[in-house]
Each structure stands twice: as structure tokens, then as C-alpha cells.
Amino acid sequence: DAKTTQPPSMDCAEGRAANLPCNHSTISGNEYVYWYRQIHSQGPQYIIHGLKNNETNEMASLIITEDRKSSTLILPHATLRDTAVYYCIVRVGSGAGGTSYGKLTFGQGTILTVHP
Amino acid sequence: GAVVSQHPSWVICKSGTSVKIECRSLDFQATTMFWYRQFPKQSLMLMATSNEGSKATYEQGVEKDKFLINHASLTLSTLTVTSAHPEDSSFYICSAREPGVNTEAFFGQGTRLTVV
Questions:
Q1: C-alpha angle with apex A24: A21 to A30, nearest 5 degrees?
Q2: Per-residue pLDDT for A100 more than 80?
Q3: Which residue, A112, A116, B72, B98, is the most exposed by fewest CB within 10 angstroms?
Q4: Residues B47-80: pLDDT tens digits?
Q5: How far is A14 from chain B (nearest CA, A)?
Q6: A96 has a pLDDT exceeding 50
Q7: Which of B44, B51, B102 is facing A106, going by the closest CB pair?
Q8: A46 chain-B contacts, CB cut-off 8 A
Q9: CB proximity A39 to B under 8 Å
């Protein structure tokens, strides 16, 4: 799976949009971009994933550049409860199959701190 | 989203004893589950892939005789830390992927193991 690069930390004011960048310049054509977050002392929480089109759900939006070498996770109106470590993970899609499908390789992520 | 439950949430054990951690998929069947370990201020590290009805696949450097994994049913995988030592104290997290194409993985809430 391709490696990702994220800034170690970011700050955001409550109520403002939080834009978390991720570089994945070696991404392959069959690899998806996944975002998870981990609030202190809890298991990771799935946020969103995409292949090449922008995606939006009730939690966030995912913007993937046309060349797919980078992406941005957008939390439109950050709250204090969004303070967490955010992980950007690139992983092969279902074409790879096999029993290891679903395995995620975590980097160091971005510590997002939302302040009042 | 799908629910993955771990039990116990925390456990304290004496050095030399064994501890069993359970991971259950509550509303879906998971042929594959994954076990991660996370030390303080570090990211999640995959320990092993648990396959229903067959042997687990361990990551390099993880002792299979120390970390026993059993995946006896489609909704339950267990991790047993045998002859635990203080250096095994960590946050253990399991995940499972829903069946289907390009589905996301869901994580349990984690188990905090402290060996004294």
C-alpha cells in the first residue's frame, strides 16, 4: 500500500472548517484513500473514503486532486469533540481480494486540536 | 455503521499470567478480523490477521506463541496474551470489515492492558 504524508499537528477554531491535507504521491490506480480518526483512548472511527471523485457524508467531505497524489479532508464546522488524531490511509480496493483485504497501515496521523 | 465490540475495556493482570481479549462483530459476519497494538503516543501497529476457521497470519516480529489468536466463528475472534510481562502493557484494538465491495473496516473500542 502507498505511503502517506500528513502534517503532525493542526489547530482549528470551533465552528470553522478544518482542512486536513494528505499527500500520497505514489498512489496506484486501484488504491483508495481512507480517513479514520482516533479520539484519545478509543478505537479508530471510520470517516470517509474515495477513489477519485470527491465524496461527502454526514461527517466530512473528501477532496481528491485530479492526479490523485493528494487529498484533503474537510470538517465543515469543527467542534471541540472533533479534537482527535486523523489518519489518512491508502489501500488497495476489492480487486486485490485475499484474506488480508481490510488490513490498514497507520502512519502517525495529524493531531487536530479544536479550540474555543 | 457496523458495530465491533471488545471485551474487556481494560484489564490489569499479574506478570506471568495470561489474558484473553474478545472481539465481536455485533451486526455482521466477519471472515477476517485484525488485531492491532498501540503504545502511548504511537500509532497503531498491526499484529495479526485473524481468519475464521484457519490459522492467523502474524506480522513480522510478532510472536505467535505469545499472542494466541482464535477465530472460531464468524462473529468472534479472541487474542490471548500468554505469560504477560510489563512490556506487554499496551492498548489492543481489533477491527473487522463488513462483507462486500470496498467496504470500510470498523474498530472496537480497544482494551487497555496493564501488566504489573
A1: 125
A2: no
A3: A116
A4: 999 888 888 999 999 999 999 999 888 899 999 9
A5: 25
A6: no
A7: B44
A8: 1, 104-107
A9: no
